[in-house]
Amino acid sequence: MNDSTLDLFCDHTDDKQHCVDTMRDTYWDAMNECVNRGRELDAISVFEEWVVDGKDPEDHDFEFIFIQDLTREVEEK
Q: Taking Cα atoms as reference points, which of 63, 65, 69, 57 lies closest to residue 24?
């Protein structure tokens, strides 16, 4: 089980493609779960979270941008 949503999408490695793959798979599973439960509008909402201008970002020339992981920052005393 994941401790947070961030843990779900990133396993704290430098493998950015793994993060993108996990995000894609998570959205795909959520969308299908919504359809299976008869929640078509929720499925559309999940789909729209993934697509960019109506296009699958992995099928086109889109770049995923990652910010520095601030969850592991230690506050200086």
A: 57
